[in-house]
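Changelog-adjacent note: as of this version, every example in the card shows the full chain rather than a window. The one below runs 781 residues end to end.
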Amino acid sequence: MSMYASSDVRYRQMQLKAERIDVDWSTSRLTSFGLPDTSRAARHGLIDSTRKSDTTTVRKKKFKGLPIMRDGPEEYHGFRLGYNFKTKRGIIEVGETEIEKGYYHGEEIKKVDKDVLFVSDGRYTTCDADDPHFYFYSPEMKVTFQDLVIAEPVYLYIADVPVFVLPFAVFPNKGGRRSGVIAPAYGEDPSRGRYLRHLGYYLALSDYMDWNFRSDLYTKGGYSVYSDYRYALRYNFTGSVSGEYKSLHTGEPSDPNRTETESYRLNLTHNQEIDPTTRLNIDFTLASDNSYINTIDLQQALDQSIISNATLSKSWEGTPNSMSVNISRRQNLVDGSISEVLPSLSFNHSQSYPFRRSKSSSDESSKLEWYEMIGVGYNINATNNQAKIDHKVDSIRVDTTFQTVDAFERDRSQSVSQNFSMSIAPKLGYFTIAPSLSYSDQRSFATNTLPQRSWRDSTLADTTEISTTRAGYLSSGVSAGTKFYGIVQPNMFGVAAIRHTVTPSLSFTYQKQIVGDNFSPRQMYASLGVGNVFEMKMNSSDTGTEAKRIQLLNLGLGMSYNFTADSLKFSELGTNFRTSIGRLLDIGGGASFNLYQRVETAPGQYTDINKFLFSEEHRLARLTNFNVSLSTSWSGEKSKSNKHQSFVDTLAGNRSQSGTYGLYQEEEPDFSIPWKLSLSWDFGQSMVLPSPTHSSNMHGHLEFNLTENWKFVLDGAYDVLNKQVLTPEIKISRDLHCWLMDFDWVPIGTYRHFQFEIKVAAPQLRDIKVTKSGSGDRGVY
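Full-length structure tokens:
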């Protein structure tokens, strides 16, 4: 049987389209090919030839109806195709196919098994251009679906120019995680010599865990080793164990300024939902104090403290009860100070209403009796703390000399605190009145070991102090609050209404210690707060659409009065504000004002006295602190072109398919956003004598596409008062279709460096790259 003109044959999962198809039913064999198209050949100035040296693009222009065969997920294109649909074997003359975003072209392709191809004079690339920008050529190639591509020998061509040759090569041919060598990056460091970074091996242990080992090697003798073990069971738990050890040298062995430093870092994470009411979260890091100095990574160099936490939390469904156990640790890498909580145990009974009856209707809150609104709460917390605090002690005898040495104060304390509260919040007209009563009990035992200099021989000795405290406080109070509005309807310039919402609140609190030693005086104070929200409602231009509402200003004020203080009874007046001008500018800040006069009691010493500024200096208050911040952000509309979307999808595949992604790679540029600009400025001022302080910093971030293929990123900050540029950074990226070029440059500062890299964009070949980097004296890049 022969078919002509747009022939289409389907058999189970196989489909074949061609200009001409011949089927021999007795042998289950079909043959398909295209026919010459003289009109198209003449139009493109092509000769009528079927030479094997013709490119696929030329053949497509000279012939019409070239065979296209689909066999399940695979699709094959060729000049002439023969196939046995019983044995599922076939041969393609001058054919090409796409498998896992890799493109295979061969003068002859034989399908010898369901998952195996043999390719003669084969070409493999991840570039989808008609004339690929790079490819690997091999006279003999074996392709195994969802496994490997083996070629021998293999030549790398870039722009049709052979670059190098290997006796054989093995390419990955499947998605997802897979074991293999982690290709290194090559470069040179001025103090440590030439290096290879992140050379190692990645091992996909199973669907639920993987492990990797990486190393940095330097020609001057230094090295670093890293290891990560990761595990995950979806919807149940995830975790990792990561460690690093570094032994870095600077200078030659005979150099008098040679340095040899060692550092380590260990991190443990685990996140698990044991059941719907029980969770375990662990993020713990241990590191040597010099780990932030002994590093070649900019982010790690800027991180000079480590915070670790491990928390087991439990709640009881249908009840207000919950509890948690926490272990925490904070390590200051600059001075070596450490503070730890080992552990903290807390139980909380949030507010419940023991006298409330069950209601059949959800809207019966207005029918509650007064006693049904009584709420009670309880919490208890037990903590074991220990700390190591750095104290530099001067003129200590060390051997035969006197030096300044690091000495540490060591503190240990155990404490238990509990609190019981009872409140009621009835509504009286427009006001909500909330009286409350609470009792809190606090007990602690502390041991402090302080390093002190011996006055007899100027050596270091420890002094231990032990203290116990116990205190119980009874507190009562009442708070009242309401809300009222003011509305103006100008109906001008599209403004329908302006509303001012005021939420004043007033509270009185009385506290007295009734249990314990060293009784503290009773406390009675009042607090006043006023919240203000200004909103604007615009006229709707379309009937049936909701009018646009805009928040103009959010302003809060608050202060308190201590009835039991012997002087300075008024606290500072605190204010905060937040507003935005459309979507263009966000403004926020705050200020505090003191009502009392501040005088100089001695040269360079100031104190507040119990005299109001209004009576002494005829002004209401003095500004003590002020801060304001302005920020804005604009961006162009995201590109919807297929080209940019395809590139973004490739990068997404790079993250999802490769198990090693994220171990040492940074976020790739997004060419689909034409431009983005972020600006911020903050100003802070403290007017408290004798040491007023000021700070003012600006930060800018600009991204723009010079063309659809060039992306520039400029990032930096500026200290306005000290007139210093802070860590400016310039990034330039070029979309080279199937390649990506990145240039990263920090031109000035301690961490100045540059890195230039060109790499293949496809995830399966992303380790094919050229890297050049350089840095300052610290070797950070």
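Structural remarks: Residues 2-173 form a domain with the lipopolysaccharide transport protein A fold fold (CATH 2.60.450.10).
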